[in-house]
Amino acid sequence: MYVLAESYLHNLDPNAIRFTDSFGIKWYGLSYLSGFIVAWLVMRWMSSTRRILLSTAQVGDFITYSIVGVLLGGRLGYGAFYEPALFTDFSSEFPFWGILAIHRGGMASHGGMIGCIIAMLIFAHRARVPWLHLLDITAFIAPPGLFFGRLANFVNGELWGVPLPDRHQANPPWWSIKYPEEVHALPVEQIQGFQGLLSRPDALDLHQQIIVECQAGNQSLIESITPLLPARYPSQLFQATSDGPILLGLLILVWLVARKPGVVAGWFLIGYGVLREVTEQFRERHVGALEVGELRTAMVLSIALILAGLVLVIWSSTRKVDRIGGLLRPSGIDDENGASHGEERPVEVGSK
Predict the structure, then answer these.
(1) Pair 206, 241 in one domain
(2) pTM score, whole prediction
(3) Average of pLDDT values for 27-37?
């Protein structure tokens, strides 16, 4: 990444480790791995300190369920919400079905949440753990994964932000971002003069050759082409900040004291939905399957999450069950290992 004309020119490699031109370990995969590792560590700490109803042995099993739910839900959700054609995209190349081609990118955070919730419900039934309490745990450990995922979006150069206002384009701020791929929007006549800056002119389209050499670090070409590209908001970093530390901070405040099962999860849905609505204003429109007037798919889904969160908080708060958890003073854990002994037992409000 280079700092030019007070903007960043994006040229980060999606591969953390590249073995061949077409194969490597990608940052996107590492982001998911990092999110699950952090979630596992947090859950083990909460279990060992008796802040949740899961034993340390159950934590590992639950993470396995969550991994399957997030990956399946995220990919299927992307196809359902944004690119339905993936379900009918069959080819002779591995993996043969478009919906399975995760290596090409395309995961929906809303779909990942739905998949994780389904996996959580299955685990709750099999492990005989109160499902609303497990939903609280799922919500509490989600922000680190969302944070790493958005950082990976930035590294991959996907989910662009909208261009800055025209008044900022001549002298864009240091935090704005430019993408070499936008050279495609420039007429050939405007870029023909850059042919002499190419280190290896070949049969590639001139636009594509400029992109390739900018990404390879051709400094002279970078300095010449960058002023012609529009500066954009770094929406991926905005959403990494909102979905990660800001959302986690909200949940920590909510769960400082013991809460009735479902309250923490409800506040997660409200917080994520509101923050997503705000940050979507800085993100390039992605036409999806759930467009409603001027509301894009992500906004429609976020509004649904906010409404569901409000219902969940109100309903959970009025149920006659014990409060569980609490980061400062844990309560509601039945045995010394933090294990649950069955379904929630209705009790009078405030009883122990």
Answers:
(1) no
(2) 0.82
(3) 91
